[in-house]
């Protein structure tokens, strides 16, 4: 059984069809790249899986459970976590506090009580230790007690990754994590994603425009255009498919 199974997902916004019968699956422990031109529907699919958008038609099954029957809050307790294309951090909070937010869904206190200092102290101490360990693993521990505001963009992108990591994800959805990074930062991030997948047996769904990174770390790639899947397979098959080259890869396919 696939860890994530997307079946005939269609999303309509009025007369606009954002996703048109999209189907693909990801096996447990697999890194799957989801690529396509701007407007292809990649982030819309992310928003369906993370329960921000409702699908007009179709189904999404995660680890044998109907994901579309759950709320956005409930999916995090099932192990589904994501990062965002645009940073979703609190600038006035410390890096450590921002990362701790990623684990509050799995605590009895929850986020609001914790922020109001009404949470269970032992639970908060455990979460703080876990958040610091995640920062250390991504070489971010030196920023732990600094406010997020003013830190380099590449650092903040990795803070988001640490925040997703402490929720004990089974499925980690990364929405353009390399956007705005330098070439060396992209290479470092690719190595981190691979290492984290191997260490924690994560299943990863990656939306990214850096084709070198996608081709290097993905075991499977799904290509979208105008809300539809136009190809699915291993990187070499996708790289050399004429329809993919025409729609997106262009000269990078060589």
Features:
254 residues, alpha/beta, six-stranded mixed sheet, 10 strands
Word description of this protein:
By secondary structure, this protein is α/β, with parallel strands linked by helices. 37% of the residues lie in helices and 23% in strands. The chain contains 10 helices and 10 strands. The chain has a 6-stranded mixed beta sheet with strand order 6-7-8-3-9-10, sandwiched between helices. Strands 2-1-4-5 form a 4-stranded antiparallel beta sheet, with helices on one face. A hairpin with a 2-residue loop joins strand 9 (220-225) and strand 10 (228-233). Helix 3 crosses helix 5, helix 3 runs parallel beside helix 6 and helix 7 (183-200) packs parallel to helix 8. It is globular and about 50 Å long. The two termini are 34 Å apart.
Principal-axes shape call: globular
Helix content: 25-40%
Helix/strand/pairing class, anyone? alpha/beta
DSSP strand (E) fraction?
A: 15-25%
Oligomer: single chain
Sheet with most strands: 6 strands, mixed
Q: Whole-number average pLDDT?
A: 88
Radius of gyration: 18 Å
Number of strands: 10
Number of helices: 10
Q: Spell the H/E element sequence.
A: EEEHEEHEHHHHEHEHEEHH
CA-to-CA gap between the ends? 34 Å
Instruction: Give, in spatial order, the strands making up the sheet with the most strands.
Output: 6-7-8-3-9-10
Extract low-pLDDT stretches.
none
């Amino acid at each position: 059984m696939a860890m994530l199974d997307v079946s005939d997902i269609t999303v309509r916004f009025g007369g606009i069809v954002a996703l048109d019968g999209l189907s693909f699956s990801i096996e447990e422990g697999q890194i799957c790249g989801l690529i396509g031109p701007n407007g292809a529907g990649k982030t819309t699919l992310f928003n369906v899986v993370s329960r921000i958008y409702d699908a007009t038609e179709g189904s999404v099954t995660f680890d044998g459970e109907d994901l579309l029957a759950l709320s956005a809050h409930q999916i995090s307790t099932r192990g589904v976590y994501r990062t965002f294309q645009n940073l979703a951090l609190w600038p006035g909070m410390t890096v450590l506090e921002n990362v701790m937010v990623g684990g509050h869904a799995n605590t009895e206190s929850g986020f609001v009580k914790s922020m109001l200092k009404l949470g269970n102290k032992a639970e908060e101490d455990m979460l703080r230790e876990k958040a610091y360990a995640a920062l250390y693993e991504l070489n971010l521990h030196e920023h732990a007690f600094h406010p997020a505001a003013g830190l380099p963009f590449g650092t903040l992108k990795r803070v988001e990754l640490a925040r997703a990591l402490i929720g004990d994800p089974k499925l980690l959805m990364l929405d353009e994590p390399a956007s705005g990074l330098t070439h060396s930062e992209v290479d470092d991030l690719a190595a981190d994603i691979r290492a984290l997948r191997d260490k924690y047996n994560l299943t990863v769904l990656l939306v990214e425009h850096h084709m070198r990174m996608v081709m290097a770390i993905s075991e499977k790639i799904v290509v979208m255009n105008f809300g539809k899947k136009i190809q699915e397979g291993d990187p070499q098959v996708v790289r050399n498919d004429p329809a993919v080259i025409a729609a997106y890869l262009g000269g990078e396919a060589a």
